[in-house]
Specification:
It is a single chain. The protein is mainly α and 348 residues long. It has helices at residues 11-52, 57-65, 71-83, 87-100, 103-120, 123-136, 141-153, 157-169, 175-187, 194-208, 212-222, 224-230, 240-244, 253-258, 260-269, 281-289, 336-347; strands at 295-303, 309-310, 326-334. Among the domains are: 2-43; 54-110; 252-292, no CATH class; 295-348. It is 64% helix and 6% strand. Helix 4 runs antiparallel to helix 5, helix 9 (175-187) runs antiparallel to helix 10 and helix 11 runs antiparallel to helix 12 (224-230). Bound molecules: zinc ion.
């Protein structure tokens, strides 16, 4: 009978006790970890619910003044709201912080509020805030730059160009902004004729060799003949989507025949038969298909500065505000336009 039980001094008994202790410790630490994470989650949830349930600025003011969170934490929270596009909450936090923050952080918080108003589309409010900051701190490049953007979005190009002066004095590179604002000012000037606009745009292009896309998009739209005449062949690839959409009757076959890229592009589109292959995969497929399938090219636009992809062309990236940083990417896609035309013709 005694053989069924382990004796107290039996080494096997010590081993079993050892493993039992390890098991108890492991189980306890697992339980404690789960309990702690659940408690933290509940606390965080409760804390965040306060913000979701905020109904007025007063409540937020009370919360900020209660000092449960430091000013830095509130700024971080507002920044995360800004990143996620919840500008309303972001504005509420900055506005409340401005009523209690110290003088040191006042200017910075005011700028952040102005930037949020700008992002949210409240341009007039953003303008007033930036002007207020600049009243006492005129040499603040970041604020000047956002004021320039506000004027640009408001289509007040004269004021935007005026903002470039102090930026130039602060040794900031304003060459792209200058050409861009002058182009926009010309394009939106209702008092000058199309001929005058094209003349001014071409002059800007010849002097700067910037904003090729913006200028040639307008030229190909209003005067394709003039656009072909001034087209720099080395820039053709930059304008591939504009060239792809040029009307067949407006094509300049002499210029196309002389340029390798244009030969491939228009052979892929099916207007000419001047190329048998292309180094661009999408062109190569279309050249080999020879219109046997309803396929075409879709263009996407990538900002080379911040890598954001847009489904439409842009001149100034709305994300990083860089100018002339659009790079075109091609994708083969179904040609719905051709399908639609064929369907319509079959009914005739
Ligand atoms: Zn960008």
């Amino acid at each position: 009978m005694n053989g069924l039980f382990l004796e107290f001094r039996d080494p096997l008994f010590s081993v079993i006790i050892f493993f039992v202790i390890i098991f108890v410790i492991a189980f306890f630490s697992y339980w404690w970890g789960t309990f702690k994470s659940k408690r933290d989650y509940r606390h965080l949830n409760k804390f965040l619910k306060q913000f979701n349930a905020l109904s007025s600025d007063n409540e937020l003011n009370v919360l900020i003044r209660a000092g449960e969170l430091s000013e830095k934490s509130w700024l971080l929270l507002a920044h995360s709201y800004f990143k996620s596009g919840d500008y309303e909450k972001c504005i509420t936090i900055y506005s409340a912080l401005l009523q209690s923050c110290n003088e040191e952080n006042y200017k910075e918080t005011l700028f952040l509020l102005g930037r949020t108003y700008f992002k949210a589309g409240f341009l007039e409010r953003a303008k007033q805030i930036f002007l207020e900051i600049l009243k006492n701190n005129p040499r603040t490049p970041q604020v000047l730059y956002y004021l320039l953007l506000v004027y640009e979005y408001m289509r007040d190009y004269k004021s935007a160009l005026e903002v470039l002066e102090p930026l130039k004095e602060l040794h900031k590179d304003i060459s792209a902004d200058t050409v861009y604002l002058k182009c926009l000012s010309t394009l939106h000037d209702t008092k000058i004729s199309i001929e005058e606009k094209t003349k001014r745009l071409l002059k800007l292009y010849e002097n700067s060799h910037q904003l090729t896309y913006l200028i040639f998009e307008y030229l190909f739209r209003v005067n394709p003949e003039l656009a072909w005449k001034h087209l720099d062949n080395s820039q053709s690839e930059l304008l591939s989507d504009i060239l792809w959409h040029v009307d067949k009757k407006d094509l300049d076959l002499d210029i196309i025949a002389k340029n390798g890229y244009l030969r491939e592009l228009y052979t892929a589109r099916g207007d000419v038969d001047l190329a048998t292959k292309s180094s661009i995969f999408e062109f190569d497929i279309l050249i080999n298909l020879k219109k046997k399938a309803s396929a075409t090219i879709r263009f996407d636009y990538v900002c080379t500065s911040c890598k954001r992809v847009y489904p439409f062309a842009f001149y100034r990236c709305t994300n990083c505000h860089a100018i002339d940083t659009s790079r075109i990417e091609y994708t083969l896609t179904k040609d719905y336009h051709r399908d639609f035309s064929e369907e319509n013709n079959s009914f005739q």
